[in-house]
């Protein structure tokens, strides 16, 4: 294991977090994979385990306006003409703290013409009997207010059966429809009567999903839970989060240009805001100078 990787263990869980991008390269429970990982000497494929900030998903044409000023981000998804998954997934993070069961990494987003704001990010990862927990804070250390959003990007693994045979439970009443070619937001629709209604757990089958969902149902403790299970093995994985993330992106990982990586896992990404929120403003976090935002999520074995 290279010096830029940090292994943590506890409660039957083992995770490996990279110093590059604070990506989660590996997560297992009693030796069973809970996410689609990648090798230590492999470049992160398909944003597996990426840490996504200061915006989740994509921004149309990489353009946005904030406080009356137009900005142009780097378009790193040229085939769809979008700025995808933020600014920190491929930069070094600094080790803040590391113990047997926890690791905390930090990075600073320095102001540029494209994103002229200063944010100090900290991500604390820990494992215990409750699962693999990530707690995230963003502090605006600059002199101007800043737009912000965040999400993780794990591909959950229910078990050894093919994804088509897994069962998904997704407590969301609303789906954000998108353009078929660029996956840009069109509008919100009820999931009733659509292929995207998984409020009652059912088999995924051959449905293709790369959509954001909202209208989430939370339990008495204020938590939303997405579960994916493998009936054949009796195993599964769940993602749990609170109301600080009113959205979740679900992706069945249909990658026609990379057939070897297609439908290996189900991306479940709790998001503080929907795709292209820098333009729509919907649920966008705006941090005043000196203000901090906190959120988090947990992956558990079933």
Automatic annotation (TrEMBL):
<protein>
    <submittedName>
        <fullName>Galactose mutarotase</fullName>
    </submittedName>
</protein>
<dbReference type="InterPro" id="IPR011013">
    <property type="entry name" value="Gal_mutarotase_sf_dom"/>
</dbReference>
<dbReference type="InterPro" id="IPR008183">
    <property type="entry name" value="Aldose_1/G6P_1-epimerase"/>
</dbReference>
<dbReference type="InterPro" id="IPR014718">
    <property type="entry name" value="GH-type_carb-bd"/>
</dbReference>
<dbReference type="Pfam" id="PF01263">
    <property type="entry name" value="Aldose_epim"/>
</dbReference>
<dbReference type="GO" id="GO:0030246">
    <property type="term" value="F:carbohydrate binding"/>
</dbReference>
<dbReference type="InterPro" id="IPR037480">
    <property type="entry name" value="YihR-like"/>
</dbReference>
<dbReference type="GO" id="GO:0004034">
    <property type="term" value="F:aldose 1-epimerase activity"/>
</dbReference>
<dbReference type="GO" id="GO:0033499">
    <property type="term" value="P:galactose catabolic process via UDP-galactose, Leloir pathway"/>
</dbReference>
<dbReference type="GO" id="GO:0006006">
    <property type="term" value="P:glucose metabolic process"/>
</dbReference>
